[in-house]
Amino acid sequence: MTKTTQQTQSDTLRTLVIGGTGKTGRRVAEKLTALGRPVRIGSRSGEPAFDWNEPATWGPALEGVDRAYVTYYPDLAFPGAAEQVGAFARTAVAAGVRRLVLLSGRGEEAAQRSEDALKESGADWTVVRAAWFNQNFDESFFLEPVLAGEIALPTGDAVEPFVDAEDIADVVVAALTDDRHIGRTYELSGPRLLGFADVAAELSKATGREISYVQVSSEAYRAVLREQGLPEDFVELFALILDGRNAHVVDGVEEVLGRKPRDFADFAREAAGRGVWDV
């Protein structure tokens, strides 16, 4: 087979982006499409549909796919995740998928079991361990609290080097398209540590209104999660990954992309300019 033929086949095969409507998946899909690489969105509303809890949907979603970006909801650290990720990875390899890029979390020992399960599939793999996303404050968990002017969490004085989803997506696209990243694990963070009081101050500055951080008990926050229909296991996960183990910045973004990661203040100004926090 000639190099031209190999290139043509590679160009016609699709990349499956699991969670392709989510914070990082949407951006990965957009960036791959801009590069002229065909994409299939892996979601329950996709065509064909993909559902982590319905293994029968995995095969159809993998048809004609040679690489995949793997994100898992609600979190790789949750019970049963490693088994599902491992089973999916084996199914993908059996279907002809050559490369798997897994989104993981920093400092999550349970998530590392999912990483190992994916690696054992025999695929070419890359693991991307990310800090908390900036976009949690404008697209996800914390949007409503920001709109209400009060971020209430059981996180105390913990600090986190929040990372931007655009930076994560750029790293993932590099891992999907460049052989130099096969077999590598990258840890991604933003350029500085922020406590949640610091986050509230940055959001206040960007929006021009007062947004405060309020420390609450784990039980009070568990009740909030229950009310919102979100997994209560997030309380334990917060306690685990905000115990100081991740209280340092890492250079994965610069290592892969050759540039500094985006700062939270820049994210906040841009999001405020879009009117996402207007009330």
Mean of the pLDDT scores? 93
Parts with pLDDT < 50 across at least 5 consecutive residues: 1-10
What percentage of amino acids are in beta strands?
15-25%
- Intertermini distance: 60 Å
Total helix count? 12
Helix content: 40-55%
User: Rg from C-alpha positions?
Assistant: 19 Å
Helix and strand composition category: alpha/beta
Biggest sheet layout:
6 strands, parallel
Annotation, overall tally of beta strands: 10
Strand adjacency order, main sheet: 2-1-3-4-5-8
Envelope shape: globular
Order of helices and strands: HEHEHEHEHEHEEHEEHEHHHH
Provide an overview of this structure:
With 279 residues, the protein is of the alpha/beta class. It is built from twelve helices and ten strands. The chain has helices at residues 3-12, 23-34, 58-62, 81-94, 109-119, 143-148, 165-177, 196-207, 218-228, 233-241, 252-257, 264-273, and strands at residues 14-18, 39-42, 65-70, 99-105, 124-130, 150-153, 159-160, 184-188, 194-195, 212-215. The strands form three sheets. The chain has a six-stranded parallel beta sheet, with helices on both faces. Strand 3, helix 4 and strand 4 (99-105) form a beta-alpha-beta unit. Helix 2 crosses helix 7 (165-177), helix 4 runs parallel beside helix 5 (109-119) and helix 8 (196-207) packs parallel to helix 12. The longest helix has 14 residues, at 81-94. The radius of gyration is 19 Å and the shape is globular.
